[in-house]
Design brief:
15 strands, isoprene biosynthesis, eight-stranded mixed sheet, Thiolase-like, Peroxisomal Thiolase, Chain A, domain 1, acyltransferase, binds 3-hydroxy-3-methylglutaryl-coenzyme A, Hydroxymethylglutaryl-CoA synthase, alpha+beta, 15 helices, transferase
Length: 440
């Protein structure tokens, strides 16, 4: 059976950098370690005045198409995943296709274009749509372009403000892919939740603490559902486990939850029993409160064990490197986590072909999805071509006053007139409403 999956990846970061310890914390009169240690974030990427979800997505896609020698005729589908859309009718993919047609010979007139929305999980859902389209053999030999692009902004003063970010991830989904083949099995945890939502508003209304509980609850359900159709997951089955990363501190919690779930009924659980006592089981307790107390103590002990720390350092921590420096990219976030993992493997000389990833996507509202991916032989060349480190180094480091001005520029409710802080060249720029042009 032909494998289908991720054939190529490109990343485009917002060109401004907000340093959380040096710039944000002093202005907010907070201890910098709340951000660097507590949330696990060093800085966030921010869009300059001439950037938005269209330009970032188009710039990532342009780089991907140029690098892979693609023409519009090679692409039969453009799916954009975003929760920052500014148009309730025309999908962002049409704006991006319009940009790309300024650069490439030919057009996307025979490509199916759409926009996917389900908070941050929509990027993964778009990959699913492309996968299904290819597996159904409706693609006429063509590939799909999936672009996850967001400006993840919060109202100023909201606790989520420290986790902001902006950027795009473009992915080519093809037959016989170079980077990763997707499993046919998936697990879901999905429920109607209202902890994070934007009903006809640009910035989210968030119950931050509850949003973390909902994330973990849906992720646990998705893991259980995945195991019911795939196989029992064992922590050593996977080279890396990229999770949706609103901020690395959230993934510290997801990692612990995942590990506890995966070691149940394994030899690891037996080995750890001597150190921390047996893993509590819900059915053994008279009340939910008693069970919760026992679980909390067990988890506190579990995260201090050498076995857990080694596993976390190998399978989870390497997925967080880019996120630490860019913040939340919403739909792009889990795809940044995968790219971080593969970058880590390339930099440490790991052999990854044939190894598995377990990918945990999540979107508020709320839905978690778990699937496995098998790494393909072309992964090293593809990841080696990413220039994300250079892009991050080139970002303009904003002062707090500049940050506030730029935040206002991206606030749809405000009229502002501020110049770009960086000088765009060789990229698409936003030149006013409906005007996205290539700046040579
Ligand atoms: P907060 O309430 O200001 O922060 O905002 P806090 O007081 O809870 O502190 C955060 C952590 O820092 C805590 O660690 C503190 O102990 C620690 P924890 O106990 O959780 O491990 N801390 C310190 N550590 C060292 N030194 C210090 C210090 N001070 C505190 N001095 C909150 C946190 C998450 C609520 C906020 O950032 C927020 O509202 N964020 C937005 C919502 C969010 O990201 N939720 C995550 C799950 S939902 C999700 O992922 C979906 C999403 O991506 C959207 C979508 O799907 O579309 C958001």
């Amino acid at each position: 059976m032909t494998e289908v999956g991720i054939d190529a990846i490109e990343i485009w970061t917002g060109k401004l950098k907000l340093d959380l310890a040096e710039t944000f914390a002093p202005a907010k009169d907070e201890d910098p370690e709340k951000y660097t240690k507590g949330l696990g974030l060093e800085s966030s990427s921010f869009p300059d005045v001439h950037e938005d979800i269209v330009t970032m997505g188009a710039n990532a896609a342009k780089r991907l198409m140029e690098r892979r020698g693609l023409e519009p005729a090679d692409v039969g589908r453009i799916d954009v995943a975003t929760e920052s859309s500014f148009d309730n009718s025309k999908p962002v993919s049409t704006y991006i296709a319009g940009c790309l047609e300024q650069t490439f010979d030919g057009d996307f007139h025979h490509a199916n274009k759409g926009e996917r929305k389900f908070a941050c999980v929509a990027g993964t859902q778009s990959i699913d749509d492309a996968y299904n389209w290819i597996k159904a053999d409706r693609h006429r030999g063509r590939s799909a372009l999936v672009i996850a692009t967001d400006t993840a902004l919060y109202a100023r003063g909201d606790p989520g403000e420290a986790t902001q970010g902006a950027g795009a991830v473009a992915m080519l989904i093809s037959e016989d892919p170079d980077v990763a083949a997707l499993s046919t099995e998936q697990g879901y945890g999905s429920a109607d939740e209202t902890d994070f939502l934007k009903p006809n508003q640009q910035f989210p209304s968030v119950d931050g603490k509850r949003s973390m509980q909902v994330y973990l609850a849906r992720m646990r359900e998705a893991l259980t559902d995945f195991e019911s159709v795939a196989w029992d997951t064992h922590p050593d089955d996977f080279a890396y486990i990229p999770f949706h990363t609103p901020f690395p501190g959230m993934v510290r919690k997801a990692g612990l939850l995942g590990y506890r779930h995966m070691i149940r009924d394994t030899e690891i659980e037996d080995e750890l029993a001597d150190q921390i006592g047996r893993q509590p089981r819900e059915e053994e307790f008279d009340s939910w409160e008693a069970y919760e107390g026992a679980i909390r103590e067990y988890m506190d002990d579990l995260k201090e064990t050498e076995a857990y720390r080694d596993w976390y350092g190998r399978a989870i921590d390497p997925t967080l490197t880019i996120a630490r420096n860019v913040g939340n990219w919403y739909t792009g976030s889990v795809h940044i986590a995968r790219a971080s993992a593969l970058k880590n493997a390339a930099e440490t000389g790991k052999k990854l072909s044939g190894e598995k990833l377990l990918v945990g996507s999540y979107g508020s509202g709320a839905q978690a999805e778990i699937h496995a991916e098998t790494i393909r032989d072309g992964w090293r060349d593809e990841i080696g071509a990413l220039n994300v480190d250079e892009q991050l180094d080139r970002r303009y480091d904003v002062s707090f006053e500049e940050y506030e001005e730029i935040h206002d520029v991206h606030n749809h409710d405000k009229e502002t007139d501020v110049d770009s802080l960086t000088r765009p060249a060789g990229e698409f720029v936003f030149d006013g409403w409906g005007e996205m042009n290539e700046r040579k």
